[in-house]
Amino acid sequence: MELPPALLRFEPHPYIALGAPYGRISPFCLRSGVVERLLEAQRILQTNDSDLWLIIFDAYRPIAVQQFMVDWTFADLLSHFGLDAQRLTAQQRSELVEQVHRFWAEPSLDPATPPPHSTGAAVDLTLADTSGKPVAMGGEIDEISERSSPDHYFEDPTEIGRRFHYYRARLRTAMEEAGFQQHPGEWWHFSYGDQLWAFYQQHPTAIYGQAQ
Length: 212
Ligand SMILES: C[C@@H](N)C(=O)N[C@H](C)C(=O)O
Ligand SMILES: [Zn+2]
Known about the structure:
By secondary structure, this protein is an alpha+beta fold.
């Protein structure tokens, strides 16, 4: 189902802005059981701090878009390091591919291993203030760096580091209390009912497979 207006979203959608092939499909869709839990997470968040809101960065992602974003991220890394795709050594290529797949799931077409967002059960999100502006979390969503680890600022003694950790903890606590599982390497990625959730929650199987 389409996300309700009670949940803020990034506009324009970041991957549509990059030209990702959604066709007529909305990226702001999720399983209804997942939407209910998101609303519950926002309610929990606001019982502790009424000035904070959830803001959705990305939700449902067709496999063609997963492939597009894997290719886009590879090209972005090439340009970041000033490398030419035609002149890569085998080792350089495999190191770049490994970096991409530390953050992006394989765009698998096998129904037994669907990419998380293709199930409609995974969501990338952050916190916003009362004006709808995303809160500084000490790293950008989709950033390929050590800062993306949820506990990156855990022992940071600086005031700003403590603030980043505080907001990351607020997001995680609200989402976990509503039943979500956080990705161990990405502070912004949560799911309910997909394979990653089942693995960490020791649930015998995922609740949701690839959505059509
Ligand atoms: C990179 C991020 N947007 C993301 O969603 N990562 C997970 C692991 C995925 O690709 O499903
Ligand atoms: Zn994600």
